[in-house]
Design a protein that fits this description.
The chain is α/β, with parallel strands linked by helices. Helix content is 24%, strand content 24%.
Length: 295
């Protein structure tokens, strides 16, 4: 069952679909498979760099991990909570909050301009009265490591008046973390609208690949809206299809496993006047729950 936001994004872009395509398409510098944020960001970057790139999606833009991600831009702070600190992972993602903040703030002049897609400039980490606390990590140590390893500002909020309303009854300690929260559906709409003519919709299990000694030579698929089979010669293939990457990689001749899958349980609560809250409930070295508000 598709998320309602995904369906909305999808149908708004399909409305004039058949009027905007060059159906004689036969060649592209790069073909991207997967229409989530990773694929759309790759498409935007390549086009801005002067490459002739297209994107192929088999269901709906944003369907799957993009919409399910909840929108908190992880900057590495959660890695501090584990007993075995993952400093290498922290270094890989530490620039992400600043990157997204710069592009989603009102009046942004950076590319891509995603101004208006930010739900909150911060999220919160909190420990409840019944939780064990942050296992083995003291705030002085956190502050030291954050300053030396991360770009993420983390502030302990001793005054309950500064806490989100939803935490005042059950919070024990609350930290405000400079990790922005974005509206993933809005980001998808913005990126897709900027590149309508470069996005195609494959039917069913496609695309398929024609291989040569140097890798993938052609990408083929039946476009379900153009009702035409397209065969695109390309020199580069990017797989950004989430859990489908393993199947696609095998089809493209790659032998190594490309995707790590982790179980995720999500609950949707719908009611009038729910409080705004974005953040992580922490117990020991684990995240018990991630809660985000979407309206």
């Amino acid at each position: 069952k598709k998320d309602a936001r995904t369906v909305s994004v999808h149908h708004k872009l399909i409305k004039d679909y058949t009027d905007k395509k060059n159906t004689m398409l036969s060649q592209a510098d790069t073909v991207i498979v997967g229409g989530g944020i990773a694929g759309l960001m790759s498409l935007d970057h390549l086009v801005r760099e002067g490459f002739d790139a297209i994107l192929v999606e088999s269901t709906a833009l944003g369907n799957g991990q993009t919409i399910a991600s909840q929108g908190i831009i992880h900057g590495g702070l959660k890695y501090l909570l584990a007993k075995a600190l993952k400093l290498d992972f922290m270094n890989e993602v530490r620039e992400m909050p600043c990157w997204w903040t710069d592009r989603t703030c009102e009046g942004s002049t950076s590319s891509p301009n995603l101004s208006g897609a930010r739900l909150s400039p911060n999220c919160y980490f909190w420990v409840t009265h019944n939780a064990k606390g942050i296992n083995g990590v003291t705030m002085p140590y956190v502050a030291t490591v954050v300053l030396s390893q991360l770009r993420t500002k983390c502030d302990l909020l001793p005054n309950e008046d500064d806490w989100p309303d939803a935490l005042r009854a059950n919070g024990k300690r609350v930290y405000r973390v400079a990790e922005p929260v974005i509206d993933t559906g809005k980001v998808v709409r913005m990126l897709a609208s900027a590149h309508k003519k470069r996005i195609f919709y494959a039917e069913g299990d496609e695309p398929t690949f024609t291989l040569c000694s140097g890798g993938v030579k052609k990408v083929e698929f039946y476009d379900r809206y153009l009702r035409e089979r397209l065969s695109v010669t390309t020199g580069s293939l990017i797989l950004a299809a989430g859990k489908s990457n393993d199947v696609l990689a095998k089809r493209a001749g790659f032998t190594q496993k490309t995707t790590r899958l982790r179980p995720l349980q999500q609950l949707l609560v719908h009611a009038d006047n729910l409080p705004a809250l974005w953040g992580h409930c922490i117990d020991g070295g684990e995240t018990l729950a991630t809660i985000t508000t979407h309206r």
